[in-house]
Amino acid sequence: MNFAEAETLAERAVAVQSMAEDVPSPCSSVCRMDRLSGFCEGCLRTIPEIAGWSKMEDETRRHVWRAIELRAKAGIWRAPDGTSDTGDRHA
């Protein structure tokens, strides 16, 4: 994930949180877990959030989207040295 992708994901998260029902999955079909952050590199969810998604009520799904928004905006998907888990430097 890079800064532009994180910004786009955060914007999508804000929009989705206002949906009354049928809250969509944040999955982007990347499905790689970052070993340092513990988040999926595509959607910034944790393994429990991914595994439990299909059983969640819409209210809980909105809470997950809120967490995704905060993670994306905070940049916590990046390693402390400013690189991704793969070593790519994010400017």
Q: Care to give the gist of this entry?
A:
This protein is mainly alpha-helical. 41% of the residues lie in helices and 0% in strands. The chain has one domain (3-74).
Q: Which bin fits the share of residues in helices?
A: 40-55%
Indicate the overall shape.
Answer: globular
Biggest β-sheet, characterized? none
Order of helices and strands: HHH
Query: What share of the residues does DSSP label as strand, in percent?
Result: under 5%
Q: Would you identify the regions where 5 or more consecutive residues have pLDDT less than 50?
A: 85-91
- Number of helices in the DSSP assignment: 3
Q: What's the total count of β strands?
A: 0
Structural class: mainly alpha
> Radius of gyration, rounded?
13 Å
- Number of structurally distinct domains: 1
What's the mean pLDDT score? Answer: 86
How far apart lie the N and C ends? 12 Å
Describe this structure in words.
The chain has helices at residues 3-16, 47-52, 58-74. α1 (3-16) runs antiparallel to α3. The longest helix has 17 residues, at 58-74. The radius of gyration is 13 Å and the shape is globular. The chain has one domain (3-74). The chain is mostly helical and 91 residues long. The chain contains 3 helices and no strands. The protein starts with a helix and ends in a 17-residue tail after the last helix.
